[in-house]
Design brief:
The chain is of the alpha/beta class. It is built from 13 helices and 24 strands. The strands form three sheets. Strands 4-3-7-10-12-14-17-20-22-24 form a ten-stranded mixed sheet. It starts with a helix and ends in an 8-residue tail after the last helix.
Length: about 475
Amino acid sequence: MENELAELRGVVAEAEHASELLGVAKPVPYAVELKGRITRDMVEEISRLKGEPDWMRRLRLRMLELFEKLPTPRWVRGVGEIDLEALVHYAKPQTETARSWDELPKEIKEYYEKLGLPEMEAKALLGLATQFDSEIVYFNFKKKLQEKGVVMLPMDEAVKKYPDLVKQYFMRVFPAEHKFAALHGALWSGGTFIYVPPGVRIEQPLETFFLIGGSMESQMEHSIVVADRGAYVHWIEACSAPRLLKYSFHNGMVEGYAHEGASLKITTVQNWSRDIVNFNNKRAVAEAGAHVQWVEGSIGSKTTYTFPSTILRGEGASTEIYGITAANGGLWKENGAKVWHLAPDTRSRVVNKSISARGGTSVYRGMVYVAKGAKNARSHVQCDALVLDGDSANITIPHDQVFEDTAVVTHEATASRISEEKLMYLRSRGFTEDEAKASIVLGFVSDVVKDLPFEYAVVLQRVLELEFSKLGRVG
């Protein structure tokens, strides 16, 4: 692993931030745009345009009713600037879903080429979907997955082709328990459905890449990843955006389900530009003996709320939730975790790394719940914060509810600053001050990054290197 990290640092030195790679947003022609007040007519029009079955149209309308009734969550800050009536809630580019890169319009294809997606697909992925604004515009699924019975489809297609399968999970793992989840249910568009049959192991990852291409848009994709009994799958969710003149709003949802003895891994690398208000709804269920792992790299955006969560429903189920949050320059970032222990002998481990600089605030907001009867449940939460100057802050908000006497729930939190002694030592070894700071940041998150696929460890370390390489004097 040390050799790999050394190679990563060499690549990092030549890398560029995704928003810099993509540049300023370019005009893209759209076939349909729906904006304005969120009404029953708008919701029904989205459903009509997609040719959805009646059950999905009715679900959307129920979610709209809940959205209108539910209050804004009290713990949310920084989203007050969002004017929902000014946003485009459905933006369909003038293209159908392409099966090769050459079929994409030039304006869209150039974005993905700058990010290196065609090369990454060829080297590391068995399946790739890319979403531009509200629709999946590229989808490629390798034949050997189909031969194993794996289903990977754009969510819009899965709703129509596999309605009984989709119904089992769609907004059942994550119901509309707050206003933004209800809004998502009413307006969702795009995303990916993945189902891996019993006993099938997919060793190479599958990926969906989400890109917001313009200002004053909302992107609300819905993705479901299911590993049936004894199966294994790793799905990567990557996000980016060019520099925008105004803000845009992301409000996606991921639902995971690991059936008995299955293993499910979900990795997210969020590298939004600083013009995105990012809200995520993420939850998975683990049945008996199943394991769920979340890895959440939340680097870009203006404001972020993301709390990967796992319900340990079956005996012996387990979960690991790793998070990296970077709040650099007056930003507010929340990256937490929630775990429900509902059965005996369940295990959870949460590791959260946060970095704050130049007036940024990073927040860990977490919850561990142990139900009565979840005998011998074990949970450990570790929150580590690196605060790079006196203008920045880290806040840790843990919340434990333990109703089982045999359970063991522990929490530890550390906060540290970059010392002048460390900087002096690294400078004496030939590092510039910027290189020294970036190296310390990379070392701080290395125990999380090592669990990423190599290609995505490169991406995440590139972003962190550039995000923290020019910070000025350390206070």
